[in-house]
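Translate sequence into structure tokens.
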Amino acid sequence: MQLAAGQAFVGTVVPARTSDVGSAVDGRLVEFPIVDGQHVAEGEPIAGLLRGLLEIERQGALAELERRRQVLAELRAGSRPEEIDQARALVAGFEARLAYARSRLARLGRLAESGTSTVDELHNAQTDLQATEAELAGAKAALALAEAGPRQEQVAQAAASAAVQEAEVERIDDQLAKHTIRAPFAGWVVERFTEKGQWVARGGLLARIAELDRVKIVAQLPELSVRFLKPGAEVRLEFDAAPDQAWVGTVARVVPQADVLSRSFPVEVTLENRVVDGEPLLKGGMLARVWLSVGKTGSATVVPKDAVVLGAARPFVYVIAGSPAAGAGTGTVRPVEVSLGAAVEGHVEVQGGVEAGQLVVIRGNERLRPGMATAFAAPAP
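Result follows.
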């Protein structure tokens, strides 16, 4: 395969994301269950502030909201049939009183003509008649209001009043939610900045959380080498902390701004981390060696990256001895030590005793031993 010569560069493991989580409100820290190194899920509570007064305010706000909703429901329902019947009965009573007042006034008028009634009695009867007429008019107006129901303006005012109180409850709920601080994403707690019982000011930092399910490896490349890189290119990585693992990442970006002193450009390589027993194998700040294809193009021997067995003094691959170069068959395996170079398209450059066209084991090689017999299918073309 034609491949640019690989060259190793020193890099540093950086979390995919790091967040310094702070408080959005002032308060006393009463819950702080997390510890350094703990894994937290997205949205998991990591701290809680004192919230007793807010709980009391919320209960009062909910009671007031219920009262306003009942007022609105009463207005929307309109007058009850009993209220209308009561208003009609009142009108009928005043009508009867009005008929009596008119009859009495007429009778006293006739008596006054014959001289058997006084002027004061006649005036009193007239006043009673006028008062009864006014009371009847008021009763009829009350009946009309009862039959028409509440005005739309009253209903709208009551609805607006209930909406204002709903917003007040939502404001208190928002404050209560802010008194529980949650993890912004899944990750590991790498540092705590406070302790339970301390007063936390708005914007005060509580903990630092790092996402390590994915990591970035940042390496500095000289300007003569950076021109060979393209985003998306595969990169082989080595870590002293995980020497028995094969790691292949992807070039995410080449930062187009060099350090003015070293004339080197930051290159970011993304990599899926591996979590073993709840702990990420790659941790922030670890040393990495990044093998990049930045040299001159030439002929190179490559094997699938799954063929490489790590964990021994030197990496090696199992070659099937006594087998045809193509087609299915059987043979015995022997380990061949190799030196690794750059990665390209799921393959790794190897230098050593592996020759072009030889068959190598890519599955189950971690269980093989030298000299074991094996059967194999024809390799894919």
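Note: The helical segments are 52-77, 81-114, 119-148, 152-178, 223-226.
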